[in-house]
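Hi both,

Apologies for the delay on this - the queue was longer than expected. I finally got the S-adenosylmethionine-bound model through. Below you'll find the protein sequence and the ligand SMILES exactly as submitted, and right after that the structure tokens for the full complex including the ligand.
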Amino acid sequence: MTTAYTDFGAPVRPVDVYPPQEDSHLLISAMTEAGLVPGARVADLCTGSGVVAVAAAAAGAAEVTAFDICPKAVNHARESALAAGVEVSVHRGSWARAIEFAPFDLVVANPPYVPQAPVDDTGSIPIGAGPAQAWNAGADGRLVLDPLCAAAPLLLDEGGTMLVVHSECSDVKRTLSALRANGMRAEVIAQQLIPFGPVMSARARWLMQAGLLAPGSRVERLIVVRADAP
Ligand SMILES: C[S@@+](CC[C@H](N)C(=O)[O-])C[C@H]1O[C@@H](n2cnc3c(N)ncnc32)[C@H](O)[C@@H]1O
């Protein structure tokens, strides 16, 4: 694609920041359809561009607090909130910092969840996929998911809810059982089949060999898990 010089006013595409994708939109629609946002204290744990945090603020959250380890994401999320005319407190740091600000009524997360092959293939993945720290999540894809499930009771107020989106490749059953083992009710409330994006295309063969994706798959299932604190 060629960009015409008349595009001066066009928004800059956040290639250094994870561009909102199917998982972002699936999480936003699950969040708004659950009807839990109006008046809620919301935390967006891996905010990236801030798209989910801004959607929560626009949907009537009482307050939205967002976290990301990437300084460019933090700046981008702040600018997005400003441009949307909503208030979001964006903090630079691990999602685990949210425990300092807890409890929340609603916690939303689109964490990194793609399993990483033993041989680093990051250089072969197109830049439009966003930075590797947005998707790389260790050999089983659970580098953030496991500690997040363990921390859910510390993040949520009584009766609070966590919504987390991830791929079928990062073990949906393990998310559900980890949350249930922590005394929470947990179920899949949304799912979507999507064609492989650039990261999955690069890793599909390895994922199948590793038994993390069904042989012959051409699409990936995204899911949103809802966990409710007692
Ligand atoms: C898949 S992107 C999601 C971005 C955005 N929430 C969305 O839905 O489009 C994951 C984000 O998590 C951030 N991240 C990775 N590890 C993190 C951690 N330990 N704590 C907080 N943020 C983290 C990355 O920088 C990236 O912006």
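Main takeaway for now: Residues 1-14 have pLDDT under 50 and may be disordered.

I'll put the files on the shared drive as well.

H.
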